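> tool_call: predict_assembly(chains=two)
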Amino acid sequence: DQQVKQNSPSLSVQEGRISILNCDYTNSMFDYFLWYKKYPAEGPTFLISISSIKDKNEDGRFTVFLNKSAKHLSLHIVPSQPGDSAVYFCAATNFGNEKLTFGTGTRLTIIP
Amino acid sequence: ETGVTQTPRHLVMGMTNKKSLKCEQHLGHNAMYWYKQSAKKPLELMFVYSLEERVENNSVPSRFSPECPNSSHLFLHLHTLQPEDSALYLCASSQDRGSRGYTFGSGTRLTVV
């Protein structure tokens, strides 16, 4: 049973436009969510996170939105840049649990 | 060196070989993890070590054997693997959950022939 789902395996966006990556989860115990970015031949790197007590967290061009009732979160990147082309993983955990549960990832391609 | 370092970066091994993957973290973290990344699948947690004790083993076949001799080093010993074990093996470390989650290594790309 996949507890964290990223239903879009790939996404292409024009440079300068907004990229929206989506993630759904099924485990209502999750209370902390993270996005990781992965370039080829590198390990995933932390991008941004959000606690369940918030519905939005912003860091520069990156904003994560959390809709707890829908068990849905999204990552917005605006404006999108060529260097944003990577695979983005959504991850979830609950407080005190050192284990992250990951989604399958979405490959984002920014078109110049 | 800083961060999480994994060696080797690439490994090709036969099904009868024995090899080991190595992970080293220089962050002072107290937990280390092995993840497996296969194509079109989520990152799969294999093993968790907290304070050098194995706290989780996610039904991983016995042909994978982890070892954590100290809080900075983690090994994954491999023997009699199958072609379907070919994947990217990622090591990660963490200090509590915090706001940054894990720090990952670059991974070892394993091919079993």
